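User: My advisor asked me to double-check a structure prediction for Phospholipase A2 before group meeting. I don't want to rely on an old file, so could you generate it fresh from this sequence?
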Amino acid sequence: MRQENVAQFGDMISCVTDRGLIRSWADYDGYGCYCGLGGSGSPLDETDGCCLRHDNCYGEVMTSGLCPSENFVYIVSYEYISRYCRTAQATLYCRTAEEYGFFDGLYPECAAAMCKCDMEGACALQRPLTTRISKVILKTRVEKQTQHE
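Assistant: Sure, here is a fresh prediction for Phospholipase A2 from the sequence you gave:
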C-alpha cells in the first residue's frame, strides 16, 4: 500500500470503525479541538482526547530524528496489514522498521513510528466512545473556549 500518510490513517479508521473512508473523514475531521489539523485548548470529550494523543504521537516522531524533516511525517508511506475490517474483530498490524526491505523506502524507522501512531489513534477510535457529541455543539464549545483564552 503506497499512499500519503494522512490517507492511510483514514483507511485505518475506516477499517476499525465500520465506516467508509468518506464517512470517517466527515465524522472526525474538524471534530472538537484536536481532530483534524492543528488544535489547542482542552479536549472536549473522549473522542477529542484520542485525537490529542494522536497529535502528540506525531509531535514526538517529528522531534525524534527518525524522519528527515518534521513535515515528512505527513507524507511518509508505511506498510500495515488490516484484517476483518468493518467488523468487531478488526485488527491492524504495522510492520516494524526491521521488516522493511531495501526497496520499501529510505526511512523505515520513520515509517514504522508513523504507522504505530496512526494504528494507536485508529484503535482508540474503535472503542465505543460514549461521550461523542455532535460537531455543531462542539464547534460552539470550541469557539467559546477560544474566546476565553
